Amino acid sequence: MPKQPTAIEGILQSYAWGGTQFLAEFLQQPNPSQGPQAELWLGAHPKGPAKVVGSETTLDVLIDENPQQMLGPTVAARFSATLPFLFKVLDVREMLSIQIHPTKAAAEAGFAREEAAGIPRTADHRNYRDPNHKPELGVALTDFYLLHGFRNPDEIRQTLQSVPGWQALEPYLRRGIPELYRYVMEAGQDRVDELLHPLAGQLRNTSGHDRSTPAFWARRALEQYTREGHYDRGIFSIYWFNIVHLRPGEGIFQDAGIPHAYLAGSCLELMANSDNVLRGGLTPKHIDVPELLAHIDCSAVTPQILQPAPGPGDWKHYPTPAPDFSLSLQDATAGDRVTADCPLGPAILLLLDGQVKHEASGLQLHTRQRAAFLPAGESYSFEVTADCRVYLAAVGEMPRLPKQ
């Protein structure tokens, strides 16, 4: 009997940095408390597995009951019988923490070390909550701003010459970006306050900065993160990292070790199924400086903004090297068909606009029911009943498993 798509309902995560309207309007569900709604999770992560519509079952349970059927033998073997990706919709009202994610090897080693030390997985000071890496792809739904990777040394040198009091940091930069970054991350809070106090005074007395400038975000960070007269050391990074502006439909890939921080806007995010984060500022949460410095990539980065590339078929895709996931999109008009082929692994279909119907099962996706899980091993054909845009999150191109 052919497999059928399964309607799923995402789980809202109400982190403090989230907005109050975008996700409520996206789901067409009221937000009666007007509290922050930060992320909609569409996946099988144990922290927030999606619900199977019309059932008490969650997606992780559905997969656990028959991983070979749901994931396909290849994916089940490669990813230990778990869905290898997590698909999200984000609404960023206040800037997120500066962070990096570990490599697979570093995550496995760190997770084993913290397990052996008996640190609870929910502990605030825990770095590794699972043994997985966390490469990420972000695709803007609105104008979206983020920090991504270090600028080149000449551009960083200009900040040291233009920001009052930062000339004293030039000797560290002459020894390389890693030495400069290490100095400010290991400096005592008194030294951080000494270096940032003149800048804080300058920014409080000026206004009208453009969002493409560090001054705009540094001023916002001062307002958000200054506590009892003490400044957050993440403000240095705002001047030393690239500020990236994504227009709707544009994407960016965050690989292991690349420092980044989301600043404002709404986006889709597709990542490996992990919750491992090493933070570097703009947060009241735990910062493990030695662990951060051991894994951060301080190389100068030229941000690569991704445009969807043609293929396969009527789909366009965002090229990334991640084996855990891939993301495609398709625009179709009423009367067309959208076909999602899942020969080796599963997928999640997300409707952004319009309406589609899977005739064999009768499942309909529309603006009040946007997502479906597609088990591996089938080709799923949807009739477009209203002009639509759909996204397909699937498994990436996987290296061949070694012969046993």
What attributes does this structure have?
Jelly Rolls; 29% strand; 10-stranded antiparallel beta sheet; globular; alpha+beta; 12 helices; 404 residues; 3 domains; 8-stranded antiparallel beta sheet; single chain
Give a brief description.
The protein is of the alpha+beta class and 404 residues long. The protein contains 12 helices and 20 strands.
Q: What this model shows, in words?
A:
With 404 residues, this protein is of the alpha+beta class. The chain folds into three domains: 177 residues, Jelly Rolls (Sandwich); 86 residues, no CATH class; 86 residues, Jelly Rolls. Helix content is 26%, strand content 29%. The protein contains twelve helices and 20 strands. It is globular, with a radius of gyration of 22 Å. 45% of the residues are buried.
C-alpha Rg, in Å?
22 Å
Mind telling me the CATH class of the largest domain? Mainly Beta
The helix tally amounts to 12
Low-confidence stretches: 400-404
Main sheet: strands, sense, barrel = 10 strands, antiparallel
Query: Roughly what percent helix?
Result: 25-40%
CATH homologous group name of the largest domain: Jelly Rolls
Let me know the number of strands. Answer: 20
The count of domains is 3
**What is the name of the CATH topology of the largest domain?**
Jelly Rolls
InterPro entries: Man6P_Isoase-1, Mannose-6-P_Isomerase, Pmannose_isomerase-type1_CS, PMI_typeI_cat, RmlC-like_jellyroll, RmlC_Cupin_sf
Domain Phosphomannose isomerase type I catalytic: 11-151
Family: Belongs to the mannose-6-phosphate isomerase type 1 family.
Enzyme class: isomerase
